[in-house]
Design a protein that fits this description.
The chain is α/β, with parallel strands linked by helices. The protein has 3 domains: 3-84, Arc Repressor Mutant, subunit A; 91-159 and 271-301, Periplasmic binding protein-like II (D-Maltodextrin-Binding Protein, domain 2, 3-Layer(aba) Sandwich), CATH 3.40.190.10; 162-262, Periplasmic binding protein-like II (D-Maltodextrin-Binding Protein, domain 2). It is built from 10 helices and 11 strands. Strands 3, 4, 5, 6, 7, 8, 9, 10 and 11 form a 9-stranded mixed β-sheet that branches. Strands 1-2 form a two-stranded antiparallel sheet. Helix 1 packs across helix 4 (59-84). The two termini are 43 Å apart. This is Transcriptional regulator. Belongs to the LysR transcriptional regulatory family. Residues 1-58 form the HTH lysR-type domain.
């Protein structure tokens, strides 16, 4: 049994396809298949059910793969020990970030982070929360930037800041006449929300104290995955939407006239840096955390967690 064989084993479990696994391991499919067959012969067990599409691990295979992930993670710690002795950080850092956070947070820190650590290659993917967690569990990402708490046992959460929700209201809407609004004044019939699957949508509905679906109540049924699209609809059509605080900080004064804050206690979302429980690249991730904290507004760093809106 070799570490290479274990890497191939984990790759097939991750991608559930021998050709894709081989491509990501930079070997030919016959080479990967031969090594896995040797591993199965050595262990005397079948690790994958090859009759199914996509390929699936057997019940015993699942347990062996879980242990293989532990072994590979521990072996990588040896390389990390050496890397930690170097004065300059280097390597690749794979970041997953949710779409309602990426356009507002990433520009705040990415340039300064890369300038301070020129030997680091940063790969950023915009993904939904469930996708980020899955990729962290399969070691396809090193770190995630998303909204917490998740209550996921395999994930470690490192809170960064607490961001307020604000309302963005068409000038003709009745609430536009108020300087501040209360959550119980929100009417789902005029509220534009994101598609199912976005944690931001769930939080918006929770602010309204309604866990069900949101119906815009007009002839237009627009399903969007973009807050910027919803913002433009409010400006040009009718109704209102909720936005995260960071999204309005650099907004032109003309647009800021459409922003209304909530009465106290303001609804907040907790934004965290998340990693797998057995995460590697600790120095890189700590450098990322410090850079984010250095670049975000001081006003959002220290707020009461008790006001955080639930994700589900």
């Amino acid at each position: 049994m070799t570490l290479v064989q274990l890497e191939y084993l984990v790759a097939v479990d991750t991608y559930r396809h021998f050709a894709t696994a081989a491509e990501n391991c930079f070997v030919t499919q016959p080479t990967l298949s031969m090594q896995l067959q040797k591993l199965e012969e050595e262990l005397g067990v079948q690790l994958f059910d090859r009759s199914r599409v996509p390929v699936r691990p057997t019940e015993l295979g699942k347990e062996i793969i879980a242990q293989a992930r532990v072994v590979l993670a521990e072996s990588k710690k040896i390389q990390e020990l050496v890397q930690n002795q170097k004065l300059e950080l280097s390597g690749e850092l794979r970041i997953g970030v949710i779409p309602t956070l990426a356009p507002y947070l990433i520009p705040l820190f990415i340039t300064s982070f890369l300038e301070k650590h020129p030997q680091v290659r940063v790969v950023v993917q915009e993904l939904l929360t469930d996708e980020i967690v899955e990729k962290l569990n399969h070691e396809l990402l090193d770190v995630g930037l998303l909204v917490t708490p998740l209550a996921t046992k395999s994930i470690k959460e490192l809170p960064l800041f607490y961001e307020a929700f604000v309302a963005y209201i068409n000038p003709k809407h009745p609430l536009a006449q108020q300087s501040r609004i209360a959550a119980d004044e929100l009417d789902l019939s005029s509220l534009w929300v994101l598609n199912e699957g976005h944690c931001f949508r769930s939080q918006v509905l929770n602010i309204c104290n309604r866990g069900g679906s949101a119906d815009p109540g007009s002839h237009l049924d627009y399903k969007s995955g973009s807050l910027e699209t919803l913002r433009r609809i409010v400006e040009t059509q009718h109704g209102l939407t909720l936005l995260p605080e960071l999204s309005v900080l650099e907004m032109p004064e003309e647009k800021r006239k459409l922003v209304r804050t909530f009465e106290e206690p303001q609804p907040l979302r907790e934004v965290s840096l998340v990693v797998h429980r057995s995460f590697l690249k600790k120095k890189l991730i700590e450098a990322l955390r410090q850079e984010i904290l250095n670049c975000i507004p001081a006003s959002i760093k220290n707020r009461e967690k008790a006001k955080v809106v639930a994700i589900k």
